[in-house]
């Protein structure tokens, strides 16, 4: 009788025995390791969510809010600093004003230009504010309250503009807004009248 061949039968092969005192071999969990590696590769390859971009303030919005800031500034007595410059004197009431001032402008006209988006940057607004101040200084006497207010109004504009240029985000940090959704900053007095104006602005 021929002995049975065992060359092709591997299912009944007994496990390799370890020597006394040595722990048995552990089977490798290749499937879980491979799947975990694949998962980590997928995570590393997946695109990350783009960071949120900070909202940039529109130039016309910055101009509008700077105007609101100087327009709503009050003096120590509670009156608006710009009160004398809201509307230019009427020709019938002050004909002499138009003999001195060849290019009249007031805050109402500036506000109208803001509504029609005629100002593209702060420099254009500054040109009209400077014209308004120079007109007031040319017509009103140096010791008059209007002349003093014109000097202080110009200083207020320059310091407010500098603040905006250094930190534009400061315009968007206040919680209060008007009926049109435009932000109005609540700030204290930025400047105080000292009786001195820059030589370039003296009439």
TrEMBL record:
GO annotation, biological process: chromatin remodeling; transcription elongation by RNA polymerase II
Cellular compartment(s): Nucleus
Entry-linked Pfam families: Bromodomain
An MF annotation (GO) of this entry: chromatin binding
Highest taxon above the source species: Eukaryota
Alphabetical list of Gene3D superfamilies matching this protein: Bromodomain-like (1.20.920.10)
Region annotation (Disordered) ranges: 1-58
CDD domains recorded: Bromo_polybromo_I
Keyword Transcription tagged: yes
SUPFAM superfamilies assigned: Bromodomain (SSF47370)
Limits of the Bromo domain: 77-147
Residue ranges with Polar residues bias: 1-13
Entry's Gene Ontology cellular component terms: RSC-type complex; SWI/SNF complex
UniProt keyword list: Bromodomain, Chromatin regulator, Nucleus, Repeat, Transcription, Transcription regulation
InterPro entries referenced in this protein's UniProt entry, alphabetically: Bromodomain, Bromodomain-like_sf, Rsc/polybromo
Presence of keyword Nucleus: yes
Name of this chain's protein: Bromo domain-containing protein
Organism, as annotated: Graphocephala atropunctata
Organism lineage string: Eukaryota, Metazoa, Ecdysozoa, Arthropoda, Hexapoda
């Amino acid at each position: 009788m021929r002995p049975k061949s065992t060359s092709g039968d591997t299912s009944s092969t007994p496990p390799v025995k370890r020597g006394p005192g040595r722990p048995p071999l552990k089977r490798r969990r290749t499937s879980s390791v491979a799947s975990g590696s694949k998962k980590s590769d997928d995570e590393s390859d997946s695109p990350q969510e783009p960071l949120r971009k900070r909202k940039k303030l529109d130039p016309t919005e910055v101009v509008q809010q700077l105007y609101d800031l100087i327009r709503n500034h009050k003096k120590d007595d509670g009156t608006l600093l710009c009160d004398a410059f809201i509307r230019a004197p009427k020709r019938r009431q002050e004909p002499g004003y138009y003999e001195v001032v060849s290019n009249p402008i007031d805050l109402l006209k500036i506000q109208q230009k803001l509504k029609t988006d005629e100002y593209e940057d702060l420099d254009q607004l500054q040109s009209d504010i400077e014209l308004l101040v120079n007109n007031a200084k040319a017509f009103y006497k140096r010791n008059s309250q209007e002349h003093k207010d014109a000097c202080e109004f110009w200083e207020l504009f320059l310091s407010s503009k500098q603040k905006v240029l250094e930190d534009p985000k400061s315009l968007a940090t206040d919680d209060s807004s008007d009926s049109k959704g435009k932000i109005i900053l609540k700030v204290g007095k930025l400047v105080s009248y000292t009786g001195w104006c820059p030589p370039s602005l003296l009439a």
